[in-house]
UniProtKB/TrEMBL annotation, chain B:
Zinc among keywords: no
Identification of the protein by name: ABC transporter ATP-binding protein
Ranges of residues in domain ABC transporter: 5-232
Signal peptide residue numbers: none
Coiled coil: none
Membership in a protein family: Belongs to the ABC transporter superfamily.
Any single Gene Ontology cellular-component annotation: plasma membrane
UniProt KW keywords: ATP-binding, Nucleotide-binding, Transport
GO MF annotation list: ATP binding; ATP hydrolysis activity; transmembrane transporter activity
Record-linked InterPro entries: AAA+_ATPase (IPR003593), ABC_transporter-like_ATP-bd (IPR003439), ABC_transporter-like_CS (IPR017871), ABC_transpr_LolD-like (IPR015854), MacB-like_ATP-bd (IPR017911), P-loop_NTPase (IPR027417)
Organism expressing this protein natively: Rossellomorea aquimaris
Species classification: Bacteria, Bacillati, Bacillota, Bacilli, Bacillales
Keyword set includes Cytoplasm: no
Length: 472, 232
């Protein structure tokens, strides 16, 4: 195979120093920007994985309140919307437990109940419950004495996982306790009522359906006391009973449903894939339910970095397109200028394909140099760019965060705020990786191929006599 | 001597103000190996068109051009130019970003030259036409018109084609160099059995050729130095 076009390309690049330097400058700018964008994206992805790891890599299947409320508002156009609770069918929750990304799961079904044969901590009355002022505009309602947390495994509930609760006596509840009348109670509740493992307590719902539960374990809670617990005993963490979710369902008068399912990922990096797979292939109705990966907290931590990543993604996209257009224009102008040369080569008997190959090699020689320069300088530029962009984003998000709470919409009583005190990630570890360089070479090659081959198609229409005659 | 190139009822016309202007009409002619032809005629008589057709830079409007009995269209115009013909252009048509030597080597590499990549052979050809080694390493644009003409001739010679076509190859050369180039063409025809066709206005050059082809009003008149034959 004759490779004389490569030799010609090299001679041409060497002889046309001015144009080669201009092309080198353009290609270097494109390469540095693309590499910086890719590097920032990689750093943001790594931060995202770290943030997910920090947040525990759990995904909750819950009712999508926002969708339901807006749906009900639409249905009752004009009327006042009332939120109807939607329990999650047990089968739907069970479907996702087979996923290869899931290492563990837990189900939750919560309610409150009246203490029948014991006294709730901080409650003045026993057995009859407390009639107190509740939410809903000054009406009177019956609130329970104890909160009943129906679960599948007690050891993987958030209270035990985050250290707010720990077993001091007895054992945890497991899936083997499903359909059994057993419970875990808090140490203070046990002490106040002189209860121990093996004893039984009786609780009842508002319709006085009773459940007698054997105490299989006692735990100690260090959770903060809710201010509202003074008025509502069931909000006191000492009055929280852990029971199999079947017990909670019985009290609520439901079966085969749960309020919430939590799935623990083997690798937090797989959260998005898990959610996407579930949304595309499960039978869960995502008009009613949603898979939530602590998104609010994640956004709080990663918001600025995600914005930077999104910006850098746009930079890569736009620079690659703009670069391809600029290069294509330069190549087009070059081809116009070099028609005479092409006429001569065609007259000698050179193949048109080899003329196109010569242009391609010329641009590639310069592109390789440009990529070399960007490999050396990309890390520095990416660091500067990334830091500056991140600081801007952090400043902006701080300004938003400083907005007084009263400016926000009113929150309903008992509606808990999921926003916890997590620190915004304010540093990006930006290092150009081999993968970034491979991506740069891939994008570079695509840009060079497109910007050279498309304008070079005009070469295929050339006739040597016409070119040389015009030149004469 | 065997026929190398054969024009068979070749006509050529071009469009001028939506009318077809004939340049050559039904020309039939044979060009043999080992012969040095000169082609003469007034301006506009179709000398360059004739050369363009013979070198496959253009195609006839009708008729056939055969090379060793094969239609050059079937051989492929590009392949024909690449393998069987060398052209010395009136305006040199050298590649400006290359040195004289690089121009010659490039042509050798593109064509099926048996000496391809042979730098020594390229230098030898350049020296044959009076280009020194030092000049051969200069960019062609730094050479004089005459020197560029000689580089253009060296490029054609280096490709070692059976058919050599030249358009006013001695127009820019001094008398001595021109004489040397003419001797070279004769030598190529007589010693290396090539078919050399030179378009010229130079009557002196026409005098030393084996056959003079006279072009007028769309026809070719072959005037052998001792015998006149008419092919119209």
């Amino acid at each position: 195979m004759k490779m004389n076009f490569m030799k010609r390309a090299f001679w041409s690049v060497k002889a046309r120093k001015g144009k080669s330097i201009l092309l080198l400058f353009v290609l270097t700018v494109i390469s540095v920007l693309v590499l910086s964008g890719l590097t920032i994206q990689t750093a943001a992805d790594q931060s995202s994985i770290l943030a997910r790891e920090k947040l525990g890599g759990e995904v909750s299947l819950t009712v999508d309140r926002e969708k339901l409320i807006s749906g009900q508002q639409n249905e009752e156009s004009g009327g006042r919307a009332r939120f109807q609770p939607f329990p999650i069918p047990f089968d739907s929750a069970e479907e996702l437990t087979d996923s290869s990304y899931v290492k563990g799961y837990n189900y939750y079904s919560s309610t409150s109940a009246l203490a029948k044969n014991f006294t709730a901590v901080g409650s003045e009355e026993t057995a009859e419950g407390t009639e107190q002022e509740g939410f809903g505009g000054g009406g009177r309602m019956m609130a329970g004495d104890v909160s009943v947390e129906g679960i599948l495994f007690s050891d993987s509930t958030s209270s035990f996982l985050n250290g707010d609760a720990s077993i001091v006596e007895g054992r945890h509840l497991t899936e083997e306790d499903i359909n059994k009348e057993v419970t875990l109670i808090e140490k203070n509740l046990a002490a106040e009522n002189d209860l121990k493992v093996g004893d039984s307590i009786t609780i009842a719902n508002t319709e006085n359906t009773e459940s007698t539960l054997e105490i299989v374990g006692i735990y100690e809670s260090t959770a903060d006391m809710d201010e509202r617990a003074q008025n509502f005993a069931f909000l006191n963490p000492y009055n929280q009973l852990f029971v199999p979710y079947t017990v909670a369902n019985e009290l609520k008068g439901t079966s085969e449903t749960i309020d919430r399912a939590v799935y623990y990922m083997k690798d937090p990096a797989d959260i998005q894939t898990f959610i996407s797979n579930a949304e595309s292939s499960s039978s869960i109705d995502f008009d009613q339910f949603k898979l939530d990966a602590n998104d609010q907290l994640y956004q709080q931590m990663m918001g600025p970095i995600e914005n930077v990543a999104s910006f850098s993604n746009n930079v890569v996209f736009l620079v690659a397109i703009a670069g391809a257009i600029i290069l294509a224009l330069i190549v087009m102008m070059t081809i116009r200028e070099r028609k005479y040369e092409m006429g001569v080569l065609l007259a000698i008997g050179e193949k048109k394909g080899k003329l196109v190959s010569q242009f391609l090699v010329e641009i590639l020689i310069v592109a390789v140099l440009a990529m070399g320069i960007s490999t050396l300088s990309g890390n520095l530029v990416a660091n500067k760019m990334g830091e500056q962009l991140l600081q801007q984003e952090i400043t902006q998000s701080e300004e938003t965060a400083n907005t007084p709470a009263s400016f926000n919409s009113r929150r309903m009583p008992f509606q808990s705020s999921n926003v916890q005190d997590v620190e915004t990630v304010n540093e990006l570890s930006i290092h150009t990786t081999g993968e970034d360089l491979l991506k740069l070479f891939g994008i570079g090659l695509m840009v060079v191929l497109l910007s050279t081959l498309i304008p070079s198609l005009t070469v295929l229409r050339l006739n040597p006599k016409a070119i040389l005659t015009k030149q004469d | 001597m065997s026929t190398l190139l054969h024009f068979e009822n070749v006509s050529y016309s071009y469009k001028q103000e939506s009318k077809l202007q004939p340049i050559l009409s039904n020309v039939t002619a044979e060009f043999k190996r080992g012969t040095f032809y000169t082609c003469v005629g007034p301006s506009g008589s179709g000398k360059t068109t004739f050369l363009s057709l013979a070198s496959a830079l253009d195609s006839p409007t009708s008729g056939q051009i055969l090379f060793e009995g094969n239609d050059i269209k079937k051989i492929g115009l590009s392949t024909f130019r690449n393998r069987h013909v060398s052209i010395v252009f009136q305006s040199y048509n050298l590649l400006p970003y290359m040195t004289a030597l690089q121009n010659v080597i490039t042509a050798m590499e593109i064509t099926k030259s048996t000496n391809k990549n042979n730098k020594a052979f390229a230098l030898e050809m350049l020296q044959k036409v009076g280009i020194s080694e030092e000049q051969s390493r200069q960019r062609v644009l730094t050479l004089s018109g005459g020197q560029q003409q000689r580089v253009s001739i060296a490029r054609a010679l280096s490709c070692q084609s059976e058919l050599i076509l030249a358009d006013e190859p001695t127009g820019n050369l001094d008398e001595d160099t021109a004489s040397g180039i003419v001797d070279l063409f004769r030598e190529l025809a007589h010693k290396e059995n090539k078919c050399v066709i030179v378009v010229t206005h130079d009557q002196g050059l026409a005098q030393v050729s084996d056959t003079v082809i006279s072009l007028s009003k769309g026809g070719l008149v072959f005037k052998e130095m001792r015998k006149l034959e008419k092919f119209v």
